[in-house]
Amino acid sequence: MKKIYCLTFLAAIVCLLSCKAKDMEKIYDFKAPTSKGVDLDFAQFEGKVLLIVNTASKCGFTPQFEGLEKLHEQYKDKGLVVIGFPCNQFAEQDPGTDNEIVEFCKLNYGVSFQIMKKSDVNGPNANPIFTYLKSQAGFTGFDPNHPLAKILDDMLKKNDPDYAKNPDIKWNFTKFLISKDGSKVERFEPTVAPEDIATRIEALLAE
Question: Using CA atoms, how far apart are residues 78 and 52, in angstroms rounded to an integer?
Answer without folding.
Answer: 17
